[in-house]
């Protein structure tokens, strides 16, 4: 039974067992948090390709999720130059060994985790769309073993065409647009699927629902 139905069933049971009160008394309204169908479907699509996806209601929720993912296991953190990523990571109380904004190709290979935003996302395939014209995100998203991407719920679209149209309306699209669907994978070695050979072994998507 879905969580909503469990809650409503419990309310009905307790109301039926309670004595009738004064009709003039205040009525208590219980609100069950809702996740829009597109976000729910996107989350399912991300998890279907071995990614991890959570929905955050606020920046505080995002900070808690960043803290949970990074914890004590990821000691070297690289982030893109998006101001929102810089602000969120500094809102955590994480103690890391190294922290760099948009490291270059000579540096990026030594980092454990890369954190970026995504300019759009596609429900059909669970794909993130990163436009390097918006932030320096390519190396940070493609090299470290763990990639954390933050995407706004309003930037989630059903199809690739809708996502690209959304990016284009905000200005010229960069020649370097990155599409990320789950962790890096390849079957080049004896046709056996391997995860993380050419890029991140883990993909964590945080959807900010506003």
List the helices and strands and how they pair.
Blueprint: H1 3-17, H2 37-48, E1 52-56, H3 59-70, E2 76-79, H4 83-91, E3 98-101, E4 113-117, E5 120-122, E6 127-131, H5 138-142, E7 146-152, E8 156-157, H6 160-169, E9 177-180, E10 185-186, E11 194-195, E12 202-208
Parallel strand pairs: 1-12, 2-3, 2-4, 4-7, 5-8, 7-12
Antiparallel strand pairs: 5-6, 6-9, 10-11
So how many helices? 6
Largest sheet: 6 strands, parallel
**Distance between termini?**
27 Å
- What top-tier CATH class fits best? Alpha Beta
Radius of gyration: 21 Å
Q: Label the CATH architecture.
A: 3-Layer(aba) Sandwich
Widest sheet: strand ordering? 1-12-7-4-2-3
Describe this entry's structure for a reader.
The radius of gyration is 21 Å and the shape is globular. The protein has helices at residues 3-17, 37-48, 59-70, 83-91, 138-142, 160-169; strands at residues 52-56, 76-79, 98-101, 113-117, 120-122, 127-131, 146-152, 156-157, 177-180, 185-186, 194-195, 202-208. The protein has a single domain (35-208), classed as 3-Layer(aba) Sandwich (Rossmann fold). The longest helix has 15 residues, at 3-17. With 210 residues, the protein is an alpha/beta fold. The chain is built from six helices and twelve strands. Residues 187-196 have low confidence and may be disordered.
């Amino acid at each position: 039974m879905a969580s909503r139905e469990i809650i409503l069933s419990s309310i009905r049971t307790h109301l039926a067992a309670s004595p009738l009160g004064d009709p003039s008394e205040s009525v208590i309204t219980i609100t069950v948090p809702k996740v829009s169908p597109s976000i729910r479907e996107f989350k399912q699509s991300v998890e279907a390709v071995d990614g991890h996806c959570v929905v955050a209601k606020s920046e505080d929720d995002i900070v808690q999720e960043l803290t949970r993912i990074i914890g004590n296991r990821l000691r070297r953190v690289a982030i893109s130059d998006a101001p929102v990523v810089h602000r969120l990571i500094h809102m955590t109380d994480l103690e890391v060994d190294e922290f760099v904004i948009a490291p270059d190709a000579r540096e990026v290979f030594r980092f454990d985790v890369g954190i970026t935003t995504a300019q759009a996302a596609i429900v059909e395939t669970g794909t993130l769309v990163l436009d390097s014209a918006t932030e320096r995100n390519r190396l940070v998203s493609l090299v470290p073993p763990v990639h954390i991407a933050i995407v706004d719920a309003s930037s989630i679209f059903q199809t690739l065409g809708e996502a690209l149209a959304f990016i284009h309306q905000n200005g010229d699209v960069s020649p370097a647009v990155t599409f990320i669907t789950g962790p890096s994978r390849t079957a080049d070695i004896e046709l056996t699927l391997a995860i993380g050979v050419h890029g991140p072994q883990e993909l964590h998507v945080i959807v900010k629902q506003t």
